Prior knowledge:
Chain A: The chain crosses the membrane at residues 32-55, 76-103, 159-184, 204-224. The structure holds two protein chains of two kinds. Chain A is mainly alpha-helical.
Amino acid sequence: MTAPAMGTTKTTHIDVAPKKKKGPGALATAYLVIYNVVMTAGWLVIAVGLVRAYLARGSYHGLYYSIEKPLKFFQTGALLEILHCAVGIVPSSVVLTGFQVLSRVFLTWAVTHSVREVQSEDSVLLFVSAWTITEIIRYSFYTFSLLNHLPYLIKWARYTFFLVLYPMGVTGELLTIYAALPYVQKTGLYSITLPNKYNFSFDYHTFLILTMVSYIPLFPQLYFHMMRQRKKVLCHVEEFKTE
Amino acid sequence: MDALALEAKSTGEEKKAPAPRPRPKPPKKAKRIVYFEVEIVDAKTKEKLLLLDKVEPTSTILDIKALFHKSNPQWYPARQCLRLDPKGKGLKDEDILQTLPVGTTASFYFSDMGAQIAWGTVFLSECYGPLLIYLMFYFRLPFIYAPKYDFTSSKHWVVHLACMCHSFHYVKRILETLFIHRISHGTMPLRNIFKNCSYYWCFAAWMAYYINHPLYTPPYYGQQQVQTALIIFLFCQVGNFSINVALRNLKCPGSKVKKIPHPTKNPFTWIFTLVSCPNYTYELGSWVGFTVMTQCLPVAFFTIVGFILMTVWARGKHRNYRKEFRDYPTLRSPILPFIL
C-alpha cells in the first residue's frame, strides 16, 4: 500500500536478553556468534575509518567516501538477519526485521549511492555515525548474549544510547532524502512515465516525499517501544543480573 | 396384526412420559427442571463479572449473552466472546447450556471482541466503493487528469469494455451479498471496515487511474487479446456465480449444519471435484482475464495480491473441511487443482 518507512537507527529486536531464549542448536549458535562478531568488527572498521579520515582531513566534510565500501558491504550483509528470522534461529518477527533492514538498505543504496550529489552532505555523516555506534553496540550485545556473558555495560549502552542516536539518525536520514529530492526530480531517477505498454507510472520524487512523511507515524512508535523495553530491561536488573 | 400394533401403541403411550412435545426437557429425570448457575468471569483479570442463577438448562449461549448485556449494556451480545477455558475456542451462540461439559454451575470466561459491525455492511461498502470510484475515473471527473481531459471519453474501445466488466463484477458482488450469501458470523470487528475498504478502494483507484488515463496504451495483441480475455472473464464470472449459488443451496435457512459441497448439474460446479474453494479459483480467473484485457501493471499487482489472500483463505477453509469431515474427498486442492 504505502512505501516502507525508512531507517530506524536502532533496530528493535524484540528478542531481549532477560527472556530465556529457547536456544538455537549448537551449530546455529556458533554460526550466529561468528556472524555477530564479524558484523561488530565490520562496523568497528567503519568507525575507525571515520575517525582516521577526520584526523587526516581535519574536517567533517566528505567523510562518506572513506567508508563507502565497508558501509555498503556490512549494511547489505544485514539482510542475512531476515533469513535468520525466517529459518528460526533468531526468535524475531520476519516482517519487523525485514522492514528495518530493508529501510537501511534502501537508504544506503537507493538514496545515498544513487544520488551522487548528496554524498558530500553532512547529513550523511550524521546518520552514518549514528548507525555505526548503534550497530557496534547491538552486535556486541548479541554476541555476548549468545555466549551468556552479557556485561551490564553493553546492555545499558544498548538501551540508553538509542535515546540520542535514534533521533540523530532519523534527522540525518530525513535531511539526506530531502537533499536528494531536487536531483531526483531533475533527472527523473528511477521514474517511469506514461505512455508505456504496461500502463504504469512511478514517480520516485513523490515516493521519497511519501517516505519522509511515513517517518511521522513510525518513528514515535518505535522510539517509545524502545523506551518501554528500556524500562523493562534496565529496571529489572536489580532482580536478576546477567553476568 | 394392526390391532396388536394399535394395542402396543396405546399401552406405550400411557406408560411413557409424553414424548413428542416441542419443549425439550432433560430426558432421564422426571418433570423437574434442574436450573443452572452461570458465572461470568473476565478472561484476563479473572474478576467475577456476573452471577446468574436459575438459568434454564435449555438456554443458549446467546440467551446468556443477552442476560449479560442487560447488566453490562456497553457489551452487546455481538461483541461478547464466552469461553469455557480462557485459552480455548469461543462458544457458539447456538450452543445449548445443558449440552456443554459443565456441571450445574457453569463458569464462562468473557472477553470483549471490540466494537462490531455487521458483515453485510462491510461487504457492501467494500463493493460500492470500487464501483463508484472507477466510474469517477472513467468519466474523467475534474482534478484527476489534466483539465483539458475533464469529462472527455477514451477513444479506445477496450477502455469502455473494461469499465463495463469492472462495474458488472462489483454489481454482481453487491447483488450476491444482498441475496445469495449466507455467512455464519453475523458481525466482524469494526476495524475491518477500514482495513477492507482501504484495500479495495485504493486498488480500484489505482487501476482506474491508469486504464482511463488519456495516455492509456491498448493491449499489444489488439482485438484478439481483448476478446480472449473477455471470454475468460465472463466464463469465470458465471463460474463464480454458480459456485455462490451452489454454496447457498447447501445450507437450509436457519440450519447450522455444515455440509461438503459437491458438483451439481451445473457444469461450472464440476470443478468441486478438484478444488475446495472454486469461488476463489473463478475470482482469480476473472481478474487474470481483466489483467490481460487491460494490459495494465497495477491490475496485475491487484490480481497477485488477491491471489495470495485468497490462497490463504482457501487453505484455511480446506483445512477446516478436512478436520470436520472424515470422508472429505482427498482429490481436492484448496484453490488450484493439484497445485495449491
